[in-house]
Amino acid sequence: MLKRRGFDRNSVSSRHILDSFSHLTKLIKTVATQESALAYESDTQDLPPVTNWTKDWDWLDDQWGANAIDIWNDIRKECPVATTERYGRAFMPVTMEGVAQVAHDTEHFSSIFVNVGRPDAPRRPAPPITSDPPDHHGHRRILLPSFSPKNINQMEDEMRAFCRSLIAELGDANEVDAAEQYTQHIPVHGICKLTGIPEEDADLFRDWIYRNFQLAPRDNAVRIEVMTEMDAYIGQILEDRLADPQDDMLTMITNAEIDGEPVDWDLKRGYIALLIIAGIDTTWSAIGSGIWHFAQNPDQVAKLVAADNSDLLWQTASEEVLRYYAPVTMGRKVIKDTEIAGCPVRAGEQTLVTFPAANHDPAAFENPEEFQIDRARNRHVAFGLGVHRCVGSNLARLEVLVALQEWLRAFPNYSLDPECETSWANGQIRGPRNIPLLLNR
Q: What domains can you pick out in the chain, each with its CATH number?
């Protein structure tokens, strides 16, 4: 039987925190509900299925997860920017030109909104991703050294050992769920090792991720609950580091300063929230997409397992996973009237920064519909563009590469289980949430 990895509600790091969630959630929810009462009659939006993706897109629609690439390609044939009124007025550029324009333009587009949701939704700071220049630089400078190539490269052997331990736990099983039993654990382990966040709380992190990305954009009550729980949990961790400093990233953040001044406590909590939310689901989705893809392409698997781990083919294949199945779509708030690819947008409206769609633009990539494990020219934007390019890209690249190498070498003949379906997450982070496989050993 598999050992369960995750959150123990009776653990020392968690038990004393949970009791405070209910009271804090009720308090904050009351205030936020009063503030938004004029805009909406309910905390929750129930919306009909999308029938016109160009004029009424919705990234939480059930069609999105498994079909997003086709959706973006179909929109691009009609126009460079889709619109919707489901979250107030919001836009979705699907070309590299439009996406790059928004990503680089910090004068007209603000990162105070990093996802598209209800206009009345409560938001929390999670710098540097939610900060604009000039403040952004100071916040990014705090986190960047921990994700340097030197620091991340030192983690490779330990990450390989962890992946192999997950594979060993599968025992002699032939039918497995690679998401539940493999991919979702790897980035949790990586971010916890890097930061000092308690890995035994992994299930709690995954619960926050699910509610934050799948439910919160339409449901303010859920958004408030997640924010409140994370604030209480992270606040306690930082308090613990103040009382008992460790040689880890959490202690560094606890004592962080910018230009000789202590960083605000709420912003420190935001740093940790960002590492948990953005550092786990994104890479888990990319690894899962790669495993799902290669399960259907045994010829590509054969070429890869015949190559040494140091062979360039592994690098190009891993980068192609990131291009083709880029999981992350960001958001921006329009703060000055402007245009996106000729489409007028007004201050107060929202837009996606659809990096995955840009990765499938024929104007930017030759034969983008083809998954080429040896693609030579691959300037993908899976990690974003501009000042907000992913601070953790070095760690993500290592985790994707190592996880794929270890899985494909252990199970070179694996395939999708024809009796089961893979389900895909919708919204900001797109990727497979279950991957039923036959290992065919």
A: 12-438 (1.10.630.10)
- Say what the pTM is: 0.90
C-alpha to C-alpha distance for 288 and 206, rounded to whole angstroms: 15
Q: How far is CA 395 from CA 140, 183, 312, in A?
A: 16, 15, 19
Structure tokens of 248? 């880890």
What is the rounded CA–CA span in Å between residue 102 and residue 290? 28
- Kindly compute the dihedral angle of the four CA atoms of residues 13, 18, 24, 25, in this order, to the nearest 10 degrees: 120
pLDDT mean by block of 10 residues, the chain; 441 residues: 37 46 41 37 74 97 97 98 96 98 98 91 93 96 97 98 98 97 97 96 94 90 95 97 97 97 97 93 97 98 98 98 98 98 97 98 98 97 97 98 98 98 95 97 90
Q: Where are the alpha helices (DSSP H) in 96-201?
A: 96-104, 135-143, 149-153, 156-169, 178-181, 186-195
∠ CA 214-183-401, rounded to 5°: 120
